[in-house]
Design a protein that fits this description.
The chain folds into two domains: 130 residues, Aspartate Aminotransferase, domain 1; 226 residues, Type I PLP-dependent aspartate aminotransferase-like (Major domain) (Aspartate Aminotransferase, domain 2), CATH 3.40.640.10. A hairpin with a 2-residue loop joins strand 1 and strand 2. It contains 15 helices and 13 strands. It has 396 residues and is α/β, with parallel strands linked by helices. Helix content is 44%, strand content 16%. Helix 4 runs parallel beside helix 12, helix 5 crosses helix 10 and helix 13 runs parallel beside helix 15.
């Protein structure tokens, strides 16, 4: 290859030298508590399958039935010929489930943020964004070309100071948006949503929350962070994903009808990218139905979470400030985290090391995600292996 590729070779070498390359494992089975990689079984702690629905028989049958009726793909954007009765059914089900005025279904949670933020704010507007917001929020903010002001993580007092500094009363033409994750995917902590609601009201800002890791986890029957704090009707926009607790693929925007109506006219992924497949849409409908009828899976998820967190704390691991089934094992050094993860893998535990740029350079960790699908003996076995590996690396 010519010199034009030298910078790529150098970049890849730099990543390898600093232990920052990503080792992609190929999974050969459904994402259950036990998965198969290279023909061997592992206890899985790296999936967002919070409720164990990814291999659920009802979801699988719904997908198969939908394919028989609607085919494998819509072959059109929703505004032309891609909207099916299934899409409308899912949007109505989500509207009831989330207790909002309206919902718009899109192709993924990532895309939902890219669709929503640039449609609401533009070049002369202002976005207040938590400094640890997800990459999809960051990219949505960049696409909007609005001025982005980061506030300290979870620090609503710092947010108010930033708002006051701008003296927004003198910028009446500028639209303002406060945007935050609901549950932060690397630390498992929860946004101070009641305080953000107060600030949005006080300073007349739109308020948007990405609840990707709150759905199926927080609130009654897993309705999410807004339900958790009993703030229905007080949050303008809720962005969600269908790829985690709902275990399918897709995303959605929930909230006030006037905002959904605007997105149908201005959200570019809705206008210019093909609709969600029938199989995904039907499976998502079934997942919503399951959660609407029962909270048993959510209860099981939290039973497992409390049990395993207590085990880790008793062993002496630093699990940060986790408030959810996302549990970081804080190790600091990325090379240590990768070696720790490899040792776990050698002993039958699939738990990924997370390092820069996903987290800060000195905040590398093993990220565990607990699921309702984990059996008590899975968690017992894992805690014993963590004790052994933790002592090997002298972190406990």
């Amino acid at each position: 290859m010519g010199k034009k590729f030298d910078w790529i070779r150098n970049e890849l070498k730099n990543l390898r030298d600093n232990g920052l390359t990503i080792d992609v494992k190929v999974v050969e089975s459904a994402p259950n508590a036990l998965i198969k990689i290279n023909g061997k079984k592992y206890i899985n702690f790296s999936s967002n399958n919070y409720l164990g629905l990814a291999n659920n028989l009802k979801l699988r049958k719904a997908s198969q039935k939908a394919i028989d009726k609607y085919g494998v793909g819509p072959c059109a954007v929703r505004t032309i010929a891609g909207t099916t009765s299934l899409h409308i059914k899912l949007e109505k089900a989500l509207t009831r489930f989330k207790k909002v005025e309206d919902v718009l279904v899109l192709q993924s949670g990532f895309i939902a943020n890219l669709a929503t933020i640039p449609a609401l704010v533009g070049e002369n507007d202002i976005i207040f964004s938590d400094e640890l917001n997800h990459a999809s929020i960051i990219d949505g903010c960049r696409l909007s070309k609005a001025k982005v002001i980061k506030y300290s993580h979870l620090n609503f007092k710092n947010l108010e100071d930033k708002i006051k500094t701008l003296n927004l009363s003198k910028q009446s033409k500028a639209k303002t948006l406060i945007v935050t994750d609901g549950v932060f995917s690397m630390d498992g902590d929860i946004a101070p949503l009641p305080n953000l609601v107060e600030l949005a009201k006080k300073y007349d800002c739109l308020l948007m929350v990405d609840d990707a890791h709150g759905e199926g986890v927080l609130g009654k029957n897993g309705r999410g962070i807004v339900d958790h704090f009993k703030l229905h009707g007080k949050v303008d926009i809720e962005v969600g994903t269908l790829s985690k607790a709902f275990a399918v693929v897709g995303g959605y925007v929930a909230g006030k009808k006037i905002i959904i109506d605007l997105l149908k006219q201005h959200a570019r992924p809705f206008l210019f990218s093909s609709a969600l497949t029938s199989a995904d849409t039907a499976a998502a409908c079934t997942a919503v139905e399951i959660l609407t009828r029962s909270d048993n899976l959510v209860k099981k998820l939290w039973e497992n979470t409390f049990y395993f967190k207590e085990k880790l704390i008793q062993l002496g691991f630093d699990i940060g400030k986790s408030q959810t089934p996302i549990i970081p094992i804080m190790l600091g050094d990325v090379k240590l985290a990768k070696e720790f993860s490899k040792k776990l893998f050698d002993k039958g535990i699939f738990a990924i090391a997370i390092g820069f740029p996903t987290v800060a350079m000195d905040k590398a960790r093993i990220r565990l995600i607990i699921s309702a699908m984990h059996k008590r003996n899975d968690l017992e076995k894992t805690s014993k292996i963590f004790r052994e590996v933790g002592k090997t690396f002298e972190v406990i």
